Amino acid sequence: MENCVLQSQNKHLPTKNSPERRDWKRMKLEDDDGIQEKDDTEGGEFSHPIPWQKIEAEGLDCDYALIFSKKEADELFEHLEEEVVYSTGEEAKVQVYGKVYNIPRKQATYGDTDLTYKYSGVTRSACPWTPTLENIRDAVTKATGHTFNFVLINRYKDGLDHMGEHRDDEKELDPACPIASVSLGAARDFIFRHRDARGRNCSRQIEPVKLELAHGSLLLMNPPTNTFWYHSLPVRKKILQPRINLTFRRILKSKK
Description:
Blueprint: E1 7-8, E2 26-31, E3 34-39, E4 53-57, E5 60-66, H1 70-83, E6 93-96, E7 99-102, E8 106-111, E9 116-119, E10 122-125, H2 131-144, E11 150-156, E12 163-166, E13 179-185, E14 188-194, E15 209-213, E16 217-222, H3 225-228, E17 229-233, E18 243-249
Antiparallel strand pairs: 1-4, 2-3, 4-5, 5-16, 6-7, 8-11, 9-10, 11-18, 12-17, 13-16, 13-18, 14-15, 14-17
């Protein structure tokens, strides 16, 4: 069985101007998917403190929160639909074990000038930031205290579009920086699977960790998550609405 591990911790992630820890009044809300904690504190660095949920397992360290209201998320989705230009032709393909496949979703890459990112046998250059992407990036930085110079965008037209198991562990990525995943549109299941528990001949029995990524949410995948855990977005035939996912990263600039 898939196991959803949510340890709710109502906290701010450390930022440049905030202390590592703060004591907050908390109000627990229970639903079918587990326990959420809602902040009932005034003040602090943010006008509306973010109720982070801690997600942990062996070698897995993530933080999850809703950082945009439904109205904000709706507007961001609409703006991205107008602004983002997705890859076509050879850039819309990936190489897996020597074979070339069409990507089962749309993709685009944006970021700082002259940045490139190579994965699945394809090297992608960053298009200049759009106004909406800059706004989302800055909101993520404010929420987490981390800066990002690149974003990979995946657009899923419906539940048939999907993403196979993989790790974001390319050498271009700053190993000290988390990957920040913003979800807009249809809620989708997101599954983590430990590297030692994959396949029929796996060496260990470790339960997968399953999440549902909501409209307007942020999932922060902290180190060493991508060292030990693969993640995927499986097919969900009943979902008819589109989803846009933005994974913000920090690319190490090559030394010339």
